[in-house]
Structure formats: C-alpha cells, structure tokens
Design a protein that fits this description.
By secondary structure, the protein is an alpha+beta fold. About 35% of the residues lie in helices and about 15% in strands. It is globular and about 60 Å long.
Length: about 150
Amino acid sequence: GKTGDSVHGTEFKKTHFSIPEGEQLNWKSLFTLREVVLPKLEERRKQKHIGKSLEAFVTIVWGTRASLAPLFENVKKDPEPLRELLNVSAVVPIPDTANPDTTEYAIDVLTGRGRKCELCWHWETDVGQNGVHPTLCGRCAEAVMQSQA
C-alpha cells in the first residue's frame, strides 16, 4: 500500500488469511461460554459480591456428555485464554466426578481468592511471596525482575 508520514496516513492492502476449522469452533465455543458467564458476573456485581470482574473467579463443573465438554477439557489443560476472555482472575474447571455422564454443566462466580496484585490487578494466592516485590503476584514479579536484568 501507500506509505505516509505516520501510520494514520498509511494504506493497508487487504490480505486473505484462513483460520483452521478446529480453531474456529474453539473460539465459537469460548464466546458461547462467555455469553453464559457474563450475566453471572453482572449478577454477582449487583449483589455486591464483586466490584470488577477481576475480583472474581469462575468455576465450571461439567459432565462428559455436556455439549461444551471438549471445550472444558481444553480449558482444563490451559485456562488462560478463557480467563483473559472473561477478564477474571481465575477459571477453575472441575470434571463432575459424582455424575460423570451428565449432559449438564454448572458455572459459578465466586469472590477472588488471595490478594490483589498491584500491577495486573488479578487476585492471586501468591501475592506477597516474593520478598523483593511483596505487592506483586508471582507472574508480575518474574516479569519485573526480567525487565530489570
């Protein structure tokens, strides 16, 4: 495209890219789940259990025959994408061992555990464990120490 003096005056050519079908389905499922969780976050906010969504952690209990069971298995392996999508401090996936064959799943929004990290504002159980950075969670303390090296 045409370049300019700043990015604001630059023309960008359209490019085509494709997303594999499996990834498309995964994101569709994540956004479907998000539509279920957001009203629950709002309900907790109205009840004054949380202020911001980062004060919450979300639990998901599911049976193996639940419609979103494959998604929950992925979340169990790596909860980070869903945690970021929901903007909460934690997502805790729990397979239903009492009724493993159920088609149901249950989502609950609870008040955050631990303390609030001064840098990322997530509620983490490891805030205060780093002697050099006692107000930061482990992830932020590590990032700060790496940036200072």
